[in-house]
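chain below, 258 aa
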Amino acid sequence: MIFDAHIHTDFSSDSKMLLTDAMMRAKECGIGLITTEHMDLLYPKHDQLIFDVDDYFATYNQYRSNHLLLGIELGMRTECVTENYAIVKKDRFDYVLGSIHMVEGIDIYYDFFYENRTKAQTYASYFETMAKCVKEYKFIDALGHIDYIARYAKYEDTEIYYHEFQDFIDEVLKKTIANDIVLELNTRRLGERSVVNALTPIYKRYYELGGRLVIIGSDAHTQQAIGSNFAIAKEFLEQCQLQLIYFKNRSPEYMVEK
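prediction:
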């Protein structure tokens, strides 16, 4: 089965999607789901992007099955590695996704992060932060949306081009591979050909450096977004010679389309 391994239900403070609605949509699409609720410790807005882990399992365990697995998306910061490890060390999660949402203590979603910074400066800081975190977060299963900053950056062209940031991207990919961390292909932006063209050299470089496994996720916060651009993603990964997997009980499973 193909899994959408990156979705947010109403346990994430930025989503109102009900799990039952997500499950209904996944059944329509013929795919499985892994919930990945936001846990961004030290987030500057109180009670935002964190959730009660015990309540999460108490509420969702009844739905857990071969088609519905329970994960978490950790917002990686070097200031709280120990605290994040404590959250996942009990091995209750099927899957742990690590992502960069904060750089220099600022959520890169917000416009003011980009003020008085060139694109080169901003993206260098983003990738340097990512590389440092991947080195420290050896306990995650996958690195989420390497192109996240391109969603929100305030430049005329926000795309990430491998040739412009080669050294930074290589450092991230090398550390990812060295720590047996899988690279996520986030499908949210794949509907645009320019995005596919920009990401292709990055994922081909991942393969050249020894990476072989990839997990896909829509980053859905709504029912309609579940499974978005999966056909494009599968074609993309075939061209990059990469193998689709998902995680169950923190172990990789090969995706088999039925």
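The helical segments are 19-29, 53-60, 81-88, 119-136, 149-152, 166-178, 193-208, 230-239. The chain has a mean pLDDT of 96.
thats it, cya
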